[in-house]
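Table 4 source record.
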Amino acid sequence: MNFPLSSKDEIIRQWRHFSWNDELKKVLGKNVELVETQVECLKNSREKTSIWKLVVTDGMESIPIVLKIYKPPLKENHTVEMNMYQKANKALLEFMPQVYWIEPNVNAVEIWMFIEYVKPLRGQIKLAPKHFDNIIPTLAKFHATTFDNRIMQHGDIFDAWLPYYDSKSMTLERSSHIEKTKEYLDLAMKDPSLRGLVKPSYKVIQHILQKGPIFFPEMLESGQSLIHGDLHFHNISCQNASENQDWRIRFVDWESAKYAPGWFDLVVLVEILIDFRKDWQKDEEDIRKHCTHLYTQEMKKHGITFKTDTLQLLKMTYLQRTLEKRLLNHLRRVLRGEKSILLERYLEKTTAWGKELGLY
């Protein structure tokens, strides 16, 4: 069956068919109508999901809502996100948009989920390092909610479906990726256009890869919690990102959620952004030290402390993430003839931090 959701006409037709004005009245407590001229596609992904922004009105106020559509069979990451919104939403409502309702059988098989619209942070501000002060406290509070044994308070929510970072299946997957990374490094050394880039760090990284799949036990020993897993700037929302201190941050797009060290979220939020932002790199050490200190202090407010130096934990987790999959992905990319902004940074930081942290 072809995916029929690339036009707003299909959404309007289904809205009328299911009388969703009545469904939304139960949520909002007032009569509303869909503004049919303001149905906007935000994202279409590989004919498996699509995301739409809709607008309804009560005649006085316009209310935006998000519609996310899934086409079965669901991939594992889509199942995780569905469960996050369907099962974990009430427990984590402080950190994610509200789910209004889920319609499970549209077009017989599709799942349509209607969610509160929270403005993306991107577009409201030009992100500067100072803005981490508005984001990291919410992230720390989110991690603290399920840190280590605290997740047992929510066992009925997460036990059956949440991926666990140290599970047998994820460990095997990491080992497989690491073996492939070794192979792709060899291929890169045989490619005349890549050999010059890879050669200076080739022997060191091949040596380091032998130490996997967990390169730093301290990272796991520092504790784990529910993490977002893909916490880049696009996945952070806030209704009003003014200069006041309470942004009421909400995280969106929960496909990569798992139980894992919270430092993975810090790596994506802070360290990967530093990798992309060349204008930040002259101050990168100050930025990562400040963010690491802030996260540590916020976690301490929630009764959580770390035995290992937290700046080292950030660097350990960055290398773990790089070595277990990201280096492989970017080697593949360049070997296909595509560009990679991050490959050179990954190679340089792996050798530099690998030595600093005792991997060779």
